[in-house]
Each structure stands twice: as C-alpha cells, then as structure tokens.
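W.,

You were right to be curious about this one. When I first looked at the sequence I had no strong expectations either way, so I just let the prediction run and decided to look at it fresh. Below is the sequence, 159 residues in total, followed by the output.
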Amino acid sequence: MWGAISYYWNSELVFLKPAGKKGITCHDYLEQVLKPVVGPGFQGQKGYKKGDAGSLYVEDGPPWHRVKKVLLESKKVLGIPRHDRLAQSQDLNPIENVWRTMKQRINARTYFPGTVNEIRKAVQQEWGRLQPVDFNQFVDSMPERIVELQVKAGMQTRW
C-alpha cells in the first residue's frame, strides 16, 4: 500500500500488486506509483500544487524504495526531486502519523474488518476521509521534529 501527503493534499491510495512471485519489486513501484502518480504530481497534475520550488519527494524504508540505478534515473526523468535521508527516520516522516491516525480510526469502528478485503475497504475509506486538518499539523511540525531529534541525538522522539 502506498499513499503520499503534502500540505493541503493527499494522493490517491495505491494497493501495489506484485508482477511476479517475489513480492513487490522496484519495477512494480516504478510502474504503479512513480510513473502514474508521483511523476504527474510533480508536473502539476493529480491535484498536487507544489508549495514552493523546494518541494521534495520523501520515501520511507520498504525494499522497493531503495536506491537502485533504474529508480534514480526514472525519478530524474519524471522530474521527481528526491530527499535523501535515512530510511528508518520515522520521526521525520509525517506520513507515519497519518498511518497511525488511520489505524486508530479503523480500530475505533464498531465492526472491525475481519477479512483482507474488508481491511482493504476500511483503509480505502479512511484514506478517502482524510482532510487537510488531519495531516497539515504533521507537516507543520517538521521544524519542531528536527529540533527534538537533534536534542535527543538521533534517538526516538515523541513523533
């Protein structure tokens, strides 16, 4: 599953499908996320309006995000400005707070989804219900996150 946020915007939610038997690969990520969603987003499509020329694409740690030559070249060709950071810097990735918010909302339902399809539907519903107020606060908190991470010398923060 893949989704992205920016100030006043969240992407479509993508449930990645492995093309082969080895699970999700960088090729799946390229074909299902980078080419159809992220690239067009950075070109002003998909409802995404870059806040400033300094907008960067931040990725977390799944293996298919890892730096591979084909992904680096594709991002360059697609006009996707990358942010290089440690893959496990969850304290510096606001999307992690959004995933937590969605989990809390699903857990609070009177009927908890019991099958894979029900879980998928619940996740899609909660993603569709997200409003800027749900994630802008996490984007706004970035300066505070950086200071707290520096004070804690890179150790875990409250974020």
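Here's what jumped out at me. The longest strand covers residues 5-6. And, maybe more interesting for your project: The first helix runs from residue 26 to 42.

Coffee later to discuss?

I.
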